[in-house]
Amino acid sequence: MTIPNKGLFSLCISLFALTVLFVGCEDPGSVGSEYVNKPELTFDTLSVEQAEALNYNAYSGRLGFVPMGQYSDALFGDLTIRGLVKPNRTPSIPDSIDVDDTFDLKLRLQLDSLEVYGDTLSVSNFTVHEITSTWRGSALTIDDEISVGDQVGQFSLQPGQKQAIVDLSDTWIDKYKEWYNRTGVDADSSYNYGFGGLALVADQGNSKISFARSDGSAFILINGMESDTTDTVDVSFRDYGYVLERGGALNAPNTFPIHTTLEGMLKVALPVDALRQEIQTSNIIRADLVFYEAKDELESSLPENHQRLGLNVLNLDVLEPIDPVYEYQFGQVDFSGTSAPDESYYKINITDYVNNVLYGNEDREELIVGAGSASGAIRSSLFFGITAPENVRPKIIITSLVD
Fold first, then answer.
1. Strands 117-119 vs 306-307: parallel, antiparallel or unpaired
2. Tens digits of per-residue pLDDT, 357-389?
3. How would DSSP label each residue in 349-386?
4. Model pTM?
5. Which residues of 80-100 are buried (b: 16+ CB within 10 A; e: fewer)?
């Protein structure tokens, strides 16, 4: 018996076997999938019920900026800031320059024209005074008491000015020369404690705070004043910083301030009981802590041509019992969040922290909200607290999977 279409018959057998193979390898979950329960994504809101305002005095020495000036902020009070600078006793002098005793000394302030707190169109006037108390930038805080003596110079800052050269009195320069020419193994240590440097003091009529860049500012040694050849040498700062006085702050009801100087912070308690109740019926896959900025109050309190340096980021730290000032300003930030463009809230992802509290060994249930900064820029903002209208109170948004 012969089969006329043997080739076609063999091809059909092969295709049938291949089809069976593919059906056998198909994901079994797709068969009857309409009868299998799918996880559902849900969102729940937990209120922050407990909060406490905190106040610290930040470190203010050897930062990126040296602020100076004064400003009356309708929200955050009357600020008066004195900049502090001290020249290096042993500047780096090129071998080609032979410094004589007749050298002059000036102060150069390199200003950040964009970073202005207050009336951007105003002129600021300053007097320069000799510091008569001992201070160290590495330990300086904003509330340290710095005594000043005789006036040794003065200067003004125009709107948008980027640099100021300040003439200093011969009397003060002669005092510096005595230290400059001193020898001995204890000359440097004696200088650090015996020579106070200069304080930059704002006049009473000022209405803005300016910021000198610590990396671009310096003293200028001018050599050869009585010769035909004049050389200039930058004398870097041996120390620098600022002190701040703030008074008369009147925050809007149901709000709390946040300052980069740590004068305004907030401690919030995690609603652990509510979170434990949540995990009995669902699996938490994300937790976000949300704070609402009081945008209307911030904007309406600024006159025309005035500006306030707002926050770039909101920090969140687990409560630090040891040296909290240093940790909240310079330590590693546990969590942080930013505000999206055109949004009035900051969202901070705390999923890992929540999981560590619920399932791990984390027993600290309090979080510190702040914006500690090592830049020296004076930034502030205002947020709604736990007594504000419900829609703008601090809250935790839980994203869960429910079977």
1. antiparallel
2. 999 999 999 999 999 999 999 999 999 999 999
3. E-HHHHHHHHHSS----EEEEE---SS----EEEEE-T
4. 0.87
5. bbbbbbbbbbebeeeeeeeee
